[in-house]
Amino acid sequence: KLTSLALQPVITPELVQGRVHLKCTYSRPSSKLPLRYVVVWSRLSTPGKKEQIQRDTTLQSFSYVEMNGINLKLGDTVFCTVTAFTRDSPEQQSLPEESKSFYAGIKFLPDSLQIAEDGKEHVLTILSTVPIACPGHDDSCKITLQLSTEDLDSQLLGPPNIALSACQVDLLRAPCSESSCAAAALTVTAVTDFAQDGNRISRIRAEPVGRRDLLWRAYTPKDVKVTVRDLPTGNCYSFTDPHIITFDGWRYDNYKIGTFLLCRSVSRAFEVHVRQWDCGGHRSATACNCGVAAR
């Protein structure tokens, strides 16, 4: 039998006549024997189970398979397995060698986020591992993705838990390199809601819009899971005639009449003003809150 020939098959994406193909390339051994190659293309149908989609016998050191949206779709994880044999004695085969898996579709980096209600922006990169074809003269070479968020804790009605910097992004075709053929970036921020509502899980969904070709029309990328960590919220109070309790628990009274600055942040545009009026009459010098303005 032929031993292992170190064929080292690798899958790369390519446009062939304007259509998306995957190419399996492998090293030709320095053996003087004239070799033929059997290339078996397969996809992951269920976790741990592969199904064959194409089988080629060739003299070339490469093989193509088309992503037609029927037997090979976006979202598939694909493998190619190569076996070599001599033309004279086909029963003498090398050991089959399998490529690393290739995921064809939209990827998010990172694929999940853990963020806190601290106002920080987190960059989410969206990339396509396959090149984007130009189906017609009126279409530019791009995929438009419509983005939406969903709070998975549906019992809690309220504002969205996360905010995105864009409602849609365009993936513009670029030369394929390092498993990216088109990329875009946006930022994700946790909504600071001042509520003690525990850690909550949301998801970001991206859906291709406006594409007429079968490959993209029937494809919805996998959602991105976002865990939002609750941060403790500070409280301050002004009540009755007015007694004031500050964020750090210090207590005092303010019986004066007028408009006062109750609170101002030194790190962001946030402040609270309060207006007090004479509510005690002639008998006692007492003031009560009659208006509040918050920015």
Automatic annotation (TrEMBL):
<dbReference type="InterPro" id="IPR057885">
    <property type="entry name" value="Ig_VWDE"/>
</dbReference>
<dbReference type="InterPro" id="IPR001846">
    <property type="entry name" value="VWF_type-D"/>
</dbReference>
<feature type="domain" description="VWFD">
    <location>
        <begin position="234"/>
        <end position="295"/>
    </location>
</feature>
<dbReference type="GO" id="GO:0005102">
    <property type="term" value="F:signaling receptor binding"/>
</dbReference>
<dbReference type="Pfam" id="PF25776">
    <property type="entry name" value="Ig_VWDE"/>
</dbReference>
<dbReference type="GO" id="GO:0005576">
    <property type="term" value="C:extracellular region"/>
</dbReference>
<keyword id="KW-0732">Signal</keyword>
<dbReference type="GO" id="GO:0009986">
    <property type="term" value="C:cell surface"/>
</dbReference>
<keyword id="KW-1015">Disulfide bond</keyword>
<dbReference type="InterPro" id="IPR050969">
    <property type="entry name" value="Dev_Signal_Modulators"/>
</dbReference>
<protein>
    <submittedName>
        <fullName>VWDE protein</fullName>
    </submittedName>
</protein>
